[in-house]
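Notes on consecutive records. When two proteins share a document, each keeps its own sequence and its own token line. Never mix them. Below: protein one.
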Amino acid sequence: MEQAVFEKITNMRIFREIPPKEEFQNPVLAIGSFDGVHSGHRRILSTLLNIAHKKSGEGIVLTFSNHPRKVLTPKTPPRILTTIEEKIQAIDQYGVHNLIVLDFTLEIANMTAIEFLNDVILKRLGVIDIVVGYDNAFGKDRQGNLDFLREFSHQRGFGVTLVEPRNFYSRPVSSSWIRTELEDGNIVVANTLLGRRYALSGTIIHGVSRGKSMGFPTANIQVDHPEKVIPKDGVYAVTGMLEEDRYRGMLNIGTNPTFSNTERTIEVNLFDFNQDIYGGTVTVEFHERIRDEIRFKSAGELVEQLKRDKAATLKILGGE
């Protein structure tokens, strides 16, 4: 028997290649990019786990380390909502015990739906049921849609379960919709669609230290994954996580027009925090957008606005 290699975090096994079907008992499979692991995706995961439980089987999620469109449309790849590390963590937190993470390659992109169904889903994994979202499709030219699966399920003896979309304002939740809301600065809507707060992680780098002289020291964040969606320029109420500690704060995305800067930066002012953290890693969660970035006539006017921003942030986050 082929020996499967996997990593393990908490109760979830992570396979970086297709394992042999002997690894699983009555496997039930969900396939997808799952970018964002948003509220619609979680409906799919819930259905997956319910079916696996009813059939005394194991739920398996098959996803990709890179977004498929990065290979399919390399000139116009999408910004991503979750890095592969964030995606793994979100799927693990939902209670899935088996995750297959593949690199989406040209070889996979060129596989026909029937090749992927036969060579991967049935021959290698031996699935007894496939759970799909309303818009899910696999294989070259997205041939492996719901009709395709239902046709072959009767021939090959596996089940197919369609998960209806999660709607918000009568519109199906989707990763592309969430990206648009973030890029428009609609954080509250984006967070509602995600089912959690949107987050960015990065390394603290040196800036010009102008904020400190004004009484609002900021940490410049160099985002670890440049493919992630960056919300619209402006000021945001956030919480920042440094190791195990959480701080309230406000964050500015933009060019600091008051000082005629041109480079777009991300700067966070963490309240009640004054340590040297250069080179450290911070994760910020976005709660609400406070205002646009504004060009002020003087540094003094900016300071007065920052005081109002802090008061607004504390009102949003709670606290005096």
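Protein two starts on the next line and is unrelated to protein one.
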Amino acid sequence: MKPHLLRITTIPLSLKILLSGQMEYMHHHGFLVSTASATHPQIELEYDSEIRHYPIPMVRRIALWRDIICLLMLIRLMLKLRPDIVHTHTPKAGLLGMLAARFTGVPVRIHTVGGLPFMTTTGRRRQLLIAMEKLTYWGAQHVWPNSASMIAYMREERLCPERKLGMIAGGSTNGIDLSVFSRGQVSEERLQALRQSFAYDATATWVVAIGRVVKDKGITELVAAFEALQPAFPQLRLLLAGPIEEERAEEMLPLDTLAHIRDNPAIQHLPWVEDVAACLCLANVLVHASHREGFPNVPLQAGAMGCPIVCSAIPGNVDIVSHEVTGLTYPVGDTVALTAALGRVLEHPAEAQAMALQLRQSVEQQFDRRVIHGALLERYRALVGF
């Protein structure tokens, strides 16, 4: 009988993008696979017909009564499915999914840590978020941070018992599909379709940021750095590709930053980019200014595309980008340092491109998706004796 694997994320975007290809891979290698997440009217999950998806109306913010309802729904789902493995990703899905799995006696309970929200908070909220993380780890048998620097941070902070900690391969949640993220695979038709979706200028130098447009992604510092460099680089343009946060007040951008995004004609905003590879082809430099990460996909994708990178020196980012070897890093939240690093890339594009080439070679050697999927499959099989 096939072992049953249930994967849970808070929102469907994580299943579609963060875990792209994993469900089909596990299904084709002998597992019965189900997924659960909230639904979204613009996001459709396209699986093989035998992979079932179950809607659970979770939200990222703390919402006590809704969270309790979702916990009960997950308990009911697990009692119905009787999965052999429950594997959760993202903080809210991890908390509710691991509690439900422990309460229902799921034999194998795994949570992947892709970032720690408390790292950018203070006071009582920080203590609450730490308590929620520890409760998640209480429910889990296996806690897998997705980068070496993240697992080191968790050990230093004593967040989780050592016996539960582990990591898949060299890190990363899903690796990188090098057959997709390769400049040679991006057609002129795809590039033209993307150009037509915003005010593209072929003569401009494009700084690109991909991801949610929120404070934790360093967008405030990026916009300030970009505008500081505009006088010296009049052809400079900024593309922000991702949704602006409108749900969680603590993540919303300051009103003045939103005004700059709206009023500066050199700044373009796309709420959604389906073709990330094409977007990175159009970029002269990717800036990933995030305040916290686990193992971020976007710098990995940029590395595979040979796109120069400037990123914050935080756990996760530094597992991908080595300063002045494969890109430039700067102290997180430091607008002056970000401005200097971005200015260096703009002034010395050949140097930046040489570092990008080094990063492409590193990604090929360490983070090929086939390696990550294979290592995860082996771990699953060992845990269920299959």
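For the record: The domain at 183-366 is CATH 3.40.50.2000 (Rossmann fold).
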